[in-house]
Design brief:
Elements lengths: L6 H22 L16 H23 L1
């Protein structure tokens, strides 16, 4: 199989980790100023935390699948 038998688990680990880290960084370090008038000054907290939790769960699940 191309790139090994655990390709799906590796992809879920990468995407889940990126989703988690990206959303946490959006909360911790927002952009200094909006690029346009339509941009929000900071990320919506509830949506950002929810997406970070979903990414963390996906990454943990993929890591558990790879270890077992």
């Amino acid at each position: 199989m191309f790139l090994g038998e655990d390709l799906l688990a590796y992809l879920v680990l990468a995407l889940g980790g990126a989703l988690c880290v990206g959303n946490i960084l959006a909360i911790v370090k927002p952009p200094p100023q909006p690029k346009s008038e339509e941009d929000l000054p900071r990320a919506p907290i509830v949506r950002t935390v929810t997406m970070a939790v979903i990414g963390g769960i996906a990454a943990a699940w993929a890591l558990a699948s790879l270890v077992s």
